[in-house]
Every structure is written in C-alpha cells, then in structure tokens.
Amino acid sequence: MDEEKIRVLSTSWGKDGEYNNKLEIDNLSENELEIMEGWVSGSYHVSVNKKGRMEKKHLYDELKTIQDDAMLPFWKPCNDKQQYFLDVDLKKLEERYTDFASITIQHLCGYNYSPENYRKQVELLESYGFSHLRSKRGVDGKFWEMWYLPSLVFAEGKLEICIQDIKNSKEKLKKAVDFLCNTAQFGSLDVSVQRAAMPVPD
C-alpha cells in the first residue's frame, strides 16, 4: 500500500472583526516532522515533491571536510591469535588516573543566556584552556556543543595559576572544579576518569 501523500489544510474564520488563521499538515513521517521543525527554525527551504513527500534544501552552507592525516584511525587491528584484556578495578582507576581526569562543560550560561554573556563565557573558558566542540546540525536544525579540557595538564591562564602549587591530584581537581563553579556560568560540569583502555602488547 502506498504511503499517503502529505496533505495541507488551511482554514480562516472570523468573529467580531478578529480572524483566526490555521494551517494543518497531515501524514508527515517522523523524519519529515523534524524537517518541519528545521524549517520553522530557519534552517531549510521546504517543498513537496511529485511523489507527495517532503524535500528540504539547506539554507546554511554545509561544512567542507578536509583530510587530516594526523587524525586517521590509529588503533591497530587486533591479531586473531592474540586478545588483550584489561582488568578493570573502578576504585583503583579513579585513584590512579585522577591526574588525567578530563572536564566537560555543557549548556554555557545556564539560565542566564544573552549574546553578550555567551561571548564573555566563551572567552573565559578559552582562556582557561578549554576547546569548543560542536555537533553538526540535525535535520531539525538543532545542534549541541560542549567545552572540553582533556586534563589539568592543559589548564591555562587563571585556572593554571589557581592549581599550580597543589601537589595532591585529588585536591588539585577539587580546587579546579571549585574555581570553575565560581568563575564560569554553565548548566553542567562533568569530570571523567579513564575506565578502560587498550593496553600496549608485549
């Protein structure tokens, strides 16, 4: 059975000189519903093709991809006759890898967003050594972003100064988190330690 074509119904009625205009679009697939969200947010031109299904055209230029040899897959394939296992003890890992804990910040500005405050927070986190990571736009026109510090070894500016005299790794991490909570505005901050890794074969 063929899928029903998209149907558009518009109505307009008035009462006491005031008009209520309504547009309904039926028979959308889940993907087409997301496309409509992207259209409303200004990410696409939208039309219906001859088959009665929705088509989209990007309003934004899509990012060009450039081959980066330094980022090619670097994991070596595992030999069929050799398998390597890592004994994971969560408690030991937390203690051992605190020096290399990473920090991820999301939802910059929290509930205090404005273009000016966003720029201020961006400059602040970049001065601390954080890198900005952003996803591609989804079909609904939305994207997510996060701010990433691989470890405190990469701390810069006032964050680096704040922790430079602390020798204990756990205390250093606690001090860094307290510093960020008191100087930057964000919705969430996550600290991650290594849980598993590929060992180096003998």
Primary descriptors:
202 residues, alpha+beta, Alpha-Beta Plaits, 2 domains, four-stranded antiparallel beta sheet, two-stranded antiparallel ribbon, 5 helices, 26% helix
Would you mind describing this structure in some detail?
The protein is an alpha+beta fold. It has 2 domains: 84 residues, no CATH class; 104 residues, 2-Layer Sandwich (Alpha-Beta Plaits), CATH 3.30.70. It has 5 helices and 8 strands; from the N terminus they run ββαββαβαββααβ. The chain has a 4-stranded antiparallel beta sheet, with helices on one face. It has a two-stranded antiparallel ribbon with strand order 1-2. It is elongated, with a radius of gyration of 25 Å. The termini are far apart. About 8% of the residues have low confidence.
Question: Helices and strands in order, then pairings?
Answer:
Elements: E1 7-15, E2 18-26, H1 30-40, E3 44-48, E4 54-58, H2 90-96, E5 102-108, H3 115-127, E6 131-134, E7 145-149, H4 157-163, H5 169-183, E8 186-192
Antiparallel strand pairs: 1-2, 3-4, 5-7, 5-8, 6-7
